[in-house]
Amino acid sequence: MNEELRVDVVRILRNLNKLGKIGRREGFNGVTRLALSEEDREARDLLVSWMEEGGLNVRVDPIGNIFGVRRGSNPNFKPVIMGSHIDTVIDAGIYDGAYGVLSALEILRRIDEEGIETQHPVGVAAFTNEEGVRFQPDMMGSLVKSGGYPLEKAYARKDDDGVTVKEALKGIGYLGRDDVKPEAYFELHVEQGPVLHKRGFEIGVVEGVQGIAWWRMAFRGEANHAGTTPLDMRKDAMAGAAELYTGLLEYVAKKGNALCTVGKLRLEPGAINVVPSLADFTIDYRSYDDAIFKEGKAEVERRAEEVAKRRGLTLDKEMTADAQPVHFRPEMVGLVEASARKRTYSTFRLPSGAGHDAQFMHVICPTAMIFVPSINGVSHSPGERSDAADLERGANVLFDCTLAKAGFKKEP
């Protein structure tokens, strides 16, 4: 590793702002580029154009993951890949995902400028549908690539309008046939939480990713008059959802290493004076502890069934995501930490509270993550911010880690 090698953070910021203009909606401050939408297509096309300008070999796999690969000196070696995603949530900031992808592009550009030869090919990846807003499960591109979800099952997933993933991939022109088998994978990301910023650390050394389970549930009861139906005679679907959520919040609070969220709720018939006959909702359950994650998933389902029985409701449920907790290999975590310390950056070890493609890439190759501070921990919001100095530090650490794994020499 060579401390003199640095990225040009101005170029990273310039590209972040260019990409961040795609998906702006009138009346909203943030960016909305839902997976496989026209906005996503436009962003993908821009990214591919940058890859091609850099002389990279662009490949798209069957689930739409995009790879841009720079050749190495040994054609038999597998590539060291850096990356993340460029799809967003609704009304998002410009850093989540895109920072890791565009920093990887900058590093490949700097490798060319410095005349560096790597034994392994080196590349950048942008994974499909990391956010999971339009299609579930989230992190679909890396999940399919790692063998954790069948391709045909992913193709059949539908959005709220009935459009399938395969139809959407065809529609935007990113239903590919290629494949890339990585030697190692590095993901640089803004923390999306307050720990590094509040505690004053410059680099987050990510030890792993907490497990994430998602459900789509529905309680079905009976619509009735809000003024004439006694409480003990109601089959109130909303009361069931409220009871379940309140109980789960109490459960995770006692556990201490778990989180639960109901982030989406729809009621029918949706009138102020009618007892709801339907509560259609989502549940997000997370834990970094393997035992608590397993126990909690069973508890979510047990409590849902118990509430339905007690209140005279029927329960429909579908688990749409089940990502186990991941603990990265010690040598990869150590490489990130050593790279940061060599540059005298302050470091802090922590697990990721958010899901990332790295947790699935970990299944097929050595994987590591690097975090930089998010100002006040704000993310999934137009208020998402990170200092330019922190963005530069994170990309410099990614630079060092990638060269270390790729094997390199600098031309005289």
Short descriptors:
412 residues; Alpha-Beta Plaits; 2 domains; 5-stranded antiparallel β-sheet; alpha+beta; elongated; single chain; 9-stranded mixed β-sheet
Short description:
By secondary structure, the chain is α+β, with helices and mostly antiparallel strands. Helices cover 35% and strands 23% of the residues. It has helices at residues 9-19, 38-53, 98-113, 140-145, 151-156, 165-172, 195-199, 237-255, 290-311, 330-342, 358-361, 388-406; strands spanning 57-60, 66-70, 80-84, 116-118, 122-126, 184-190, 203-209, 211-220, 224-225, 259-261, 265-268, 274-275, 278-287, 314-323, 326-327, 347-352, 367-372, 408-410.
SSE map:
Blueprint: H1 9-19, H2 38-53, E1 57-60, E2 66-70, E3 80-84, H3 98-113, E4 116-118, E5 122-126, H4 140-145, H5 151-156, H6 165-172, E6 184-190, H7 195-199, E7 203-209, E8 211-220, E9 224-225, H8 237-255, E10 259-261, E11 265-268, E12 274-275, E13 278-287, H9 290-311, E14 314-323, E15 326-327, H10 330-342, E16 347-352, H11 358-361, E17 367-372, H12 388-406, E18 408-410
Parallel strand pairs: 3-5, 3-6, 6-17, 7-16
Antiparallel strand pairs: 1-2, 2-5, 4-18, 7-15, 7-17, 8-13, 8-14, 9-12, 10-13, 11-13
Approximate strand percentage = 15-25%
Distance between the termini: 16 Å
Count of helical stretches = 12
Q: What is the top-level CATH class of the largest domain?
A: Alpha Beta
Q: What is the CATH architecture annotation of the largest domain?
A: 3-Layer(aba) Sandwich
Low-confidence stretches: none
Task: Classify the fold: give the CATH topology of the largest domain.
Answer: Aminopeptidase
Which percent bin holds the helix content? 25-40%
- Main beta sheet strand tally, sense and closure: 9 strands, mixed
**Secondary structure tally: strands:** 18
Q: By helix and strand content, what is the structural category?
A: alpha+beta
What overall form do the CA principal axes indicate?
Answer: elongated
Q: What is the average of the pLDDT values? A: 96
- As for the number of domains, it is 2
What is the CA-atom radius of gyration, in angstroms? 23 Å
